[in-house]
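Work package 3, deliverable 3.1, input record:
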Amino acid sequence: MKKQTKFGVGISVIVIALAFLAWLGYGESKTYYHTIAELQTLTGSARSQRMRVGGTVAAGSIHRLSGRVDFVLQGEGKALPVTYIGSDPLPDTFVDKSQALVEGRPASDGRFVAEHVQAKCASKYEAAPGGGAASGSSPQSSM
Amino acid sequence: MDVFGSFALVLAFVCAVYAFVAGIAAIVTRHPLLVKSTRQAGIATCCLVFLATLSLEYLFFSDNFSNAYVVSHSNRDLSTFFKIAALWSGQEGSLLFWSFLLSIYVFSVLIAYRNKNGELMPYVGVVMAGVQIFFLTLNNFVESPFKALAAPGADGVLSYVARADGNGLNPLLQYPEMVIHPPNLYSGYTGFTIPFAFALGALLARYPGEKWIHLTRRWTMIAWMFQSVGILLGAHWAYAVLGWGGYWGWDPVENASLLPWLTGTAFLHSVMMQEKRGMMKVWNVWLVFATFLMCILGTFLTRSGVVSSVHAFAQSNLGNWFVGFIAIVLLVCLGAYLKNRDYLKSENQLDSIVSRESSFLFNNLLFLVACVAILSGTLFPVFSEWFTGDRISVGAPFFNKVNIPIGLLILFLTGVGPLLAWRKTSTESLKRNFGLPLAIGIVAGAIAFALGFRELYSLACLLLCVFVAATIVLEFYRGAKVIHARSGASFAACAIDLTMRNTRRYGGYIVHMGMVFVFIGLAGAAFNRDTQQDMRVGQTMQIGPYTLLLQGFDAKPEKNYTAQRMLVEVLRDNKPLMMLYPEKRRFQANEQNGTMVAIYSTLKEDLYVVYAGENPETQMPVIHAFLNPLVKWIWFGGVFVVFGTLVALLPNRRAVLVLAGAQQPLTQHLQPGLTPSVTLREGHD
């Protein structure tokens, strides 16, 4: 066998094997991303897929119950009740008005059952202590 | 000070533009004065960026709450340590920090080579100035950190206002790792600009030979080292702070930091093919280009929020700027390559599949496939939306399925590659070099299997780790034995001598050893366990060999936060071992919470205890305990990697051959003042 052929075969075997594994991993973990508004328009099999939904946690909506946490996600003027049933503790950044990304499936009763929740804190904290005097202030370039 | 800072930034931008334009003019006209003025403009750009950065730090230290950036990221009670780190805790400051670190590199290059490589440096200067212009454009016109707070007064005119106190630093960032992780990672990202500038400059200048590779070897290694440390510190931060028991979650931003590391590592290896055999020239140039592009892409992913992530900053219009810059860089690289590709002709061909060359080839193939897989997985939501209209993301199973086998194959090559001969390796040499390590590896694998290591990948990983470690130790042993036979010094002294004679080779082995340790740590992840329990004071819970006894609670008010601590006693075989204090922190300034994980770490396993809040039904506090085997090896390996890289950065010591018998008469014939020295110049490979 010519040496170029040998290299060709070696490289192809590796790349094809890895591509196959990638395809398996893709099938196992692919997750659709939908907005709350989109979720309500989904029908049929699209509704039962694993998906991620992003939104803002409605103020005062977090209820910690045994084995689950209920809250409401808001976005684009719509609201989505969510039940978190995962075993990991919710992140510290998960508080009222934080941006959250929930992963799971919609249940038949209109709730969303989440197995994972990611949260990041709102990027601007408006009601800061001592900030009352400057309320309504906005960043302006000094230039 | 904010006016001073923004003025310095504008001037820096002007100087960078001048360095770029005058640099091109200097290349065309070759006028020595123009060359000199270009270089000085480059140096001035850097100094102005230093001044701007210092003035932002000054705003933090003087608690200047009329600056919007300071208000958002600091408060009066924030400690000095974190006021330094507040600089890079937000979008605008991070981008300024990028410019700052880039300026340190550019400054060092311009000073170090001011009287050298006259043909090449103007090209390098122009490329570096081009990169600086991009970031200074962002600093000045898109995301300025020097915005003052202003509000319309009674007369409707905007006037400056100052707040009494700031909003404080994000609690997640108030950890020591967060102070050193970003500077390391950014030093990696920015540092790859230097090899990129030299590679592109050399291609544009048709600069003869492999000189640009020799010139940039150390710069690349420094950038690579910072990148490695940055990634590991990030992983350690995630482990110690986020409280989910793991250190790597295939988050887009984590992936973004891994991409340039993969191409950069591939590059560090494949340059040897070019140095030794004049091969893979096109490949190497494109690896550097790719590494730089990955660095920009990484910054883009982190900064623009294009892929949703915990880390990524809020959506912003920065994305378009980065996409534009990436497109320009790609076009320039492609243009330079197409114009001068005849200059990159390979001088040799591959001879055999069992050779050093082919091991490098497969090494590069694997690093690149890993990079492509991670890149496509990370950007999958973006591409799937373009092509199908649905945003589809892929998770950890995708990344693990592809990357674990790649990691194991690379680990295998780590052991095999350095011991294969160039061109072709004989069967005898294979037996001699690999017989013993392979036997040791298999024995270790059998022992691990007997001890219950049944998970396929973990077992393979452990076997390979032992095999690779054995090849490395054997290499040190063989080399030291030769010196020992000549000098009679102790084995340890001989091993150090050996390393100093060829720092690149043996430093490389130390880095490989570090990676072996990292892999040992990764192999442990298959055996992680965790358990969660409501706890009353006096109650115990069991995890593995440890018993956790909740002794009580206390509240510890600190300057910037209040800590709720659990006092947990750890017992092993009913004997008290130590106390752990998992915490919940409440930060006053922004009313956010933080978790402080308590870890008892040994080489065998980590006991990782989280105060997971209260059970809302029983009102009882909850402990979430993890038992993570071998994690400490990862951090330990990281230290080895740094040490090895530092060794490889040292110049080779020229060994004085002490030929006991032969040298005596020689000395007598020589005039006084002349030392007889037979220098051993060992080639690096």
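Chain A touches chain B through 56 residues (CB under 8 Å).
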